[in-house]
Design brief:
This protein is α+β, with helices and mostly antiparallel strands and 300 residues long. It is built from 14 helices and eight strands. It folds into two domains: 159 residues, DD-peptidase/beta-lactamase superfamily (Beta-lactamase), CATH 3.40.710.10; 132 residues, DD-peptidase/beta-lactamase superfamily (Beta-lactamase, 3-Layer(aba) Sandwich). Helices cover 48% and strands 11% of the residues. The strands form two sheets. The protein has a five-stranded antiparallel sheet with strand order 2-1-8-7-6, with helices on both faces. The protein has a three-stranded antiparallel sheet with strand order 3-5-4. The chain is globular.
Length: 300
Amino acid sequence: MEEILKSIAAEIVRQDDWGKTAQYIPELASVDPQQFGISVCLADGRLISAGAATKPFSVQSITKVFALVAALGRVGDQLWSRVGREPSGNSFDSVVLLERELGRPRNPYVNAGAIVTTDALLSGREPKMALAEILGLIRHMSESDSIYINETVAASEQETGARNKALAYYLKSHGNLNSDPELTLGTYFHQCAIEMTTDQLAMAGRSLAGLKGAPKVISRQRARRVNALMMTCGHYDGSGDFAFRVGLPGKSGVGGGILAIAPNVASIAIWSPGLNLYGNSHAGTRAAEMLSNATKWSVF
């Protein structure tokens, strides 16, 4: 595995094809796109890495997975009355389907669905309490206390988050937001600004992969459902392409991260901040495909 990861990292650097960072969030736009890290947690407990695996990065929408785990633990299957489980076929911040389907987001991984999930966690509490629950869960799953919210990134998202604000108020107009939209949005922006390394992210994915020794934070049945949504919706309108090329459930973030799950086999984290046309890591997607080809890991 060490040789496979080193080979992938070397090939990504050799190809020198990085994509562009997220330009609509100033703090992400300024990140050097020519960076790459990859980490794999195996069923035997080993953590193997290559590249910039210990450099913290903004995990952004990958936190939607952990917020979903937390929300299911708090409100259970009641969440599905507010959020669907279908792919959207639209961009992650699209208003079109939300308007057509009367304020019920297609899935918990598009922005509107994630805002509803965060609202379910907020549920009359102070935002700092909901954030503490999400951050505490991530630290527990990764067995690392050195995971924090980047306040500068959170402020940058708050300043440029007009589209997310529009989504939140549209949800509110349909009665699908229980808290004040500004409180829910503030919680959501700070949630997305959590920073992790690929080593930490791969460790956090062990519970979803069902690996031995992983913290028991979710039942196997719910983990299977979370993974199923990652497969069908985790890369937005690029989810079909990722499934076709990689064959594993995966969740992306516009910070350039990817969390991928090989059930009962491995938890995989990849980071390269340049994005493709879908808003997913350009080099990271290629690296995931290389790893799948080299290991023959696939759910198909």
